[in-house]
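Q: I have 151 residues here and want to know how they pack in 3D. Can you give me a structure?
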Amino acid sequence: MTAVLVAGAFAVAVAPTASAAETAPIDIRMTKGDGVYGSEYHWQSRGTFDFTVTLTDTGAGNLYGTTVFVSVPEGADVTGWAGERWDCEHTGGGIDCTNPDLVVPGEAWPELTVQLRPTEYFPDETLDVYATSGGYGAAHEGVAYYYDTSL
């Protein structure tokens, strides 16, 4: 009996604990827009360009009140955004956006279009999107980006 109690106490003492919230069940798609060329995984531009962010609920339950952070490289300015019911504001390193819509599994929030203007040369950076809803940790998607100043 003593061995069982000691073994049980040891098992509890070494059991792993969650250190971060579960990742939000949100699929993030970034789609090239005007002024962007390159592959799906490595974008390039020679000036102002835009891209679209599409978020889809991939979980088993409804999600609402989503928050998105669009992170851009130092040396690029977010010059605009558009999307139904998206409320965005400039923040350090990009923009923070919220959308109050409730979506059901398999449904997407309205698209969010972001416009950027590079202001200095950078050869190897990323554009990143982080999205969360309902107490989950942020889902993430990013694409490599190069500002081409050859013209």
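Q: Anything worth noting?
A: The longest strand covers residues 94-103. Residues 118 and 134 are 34 Å apart (CA to CA).
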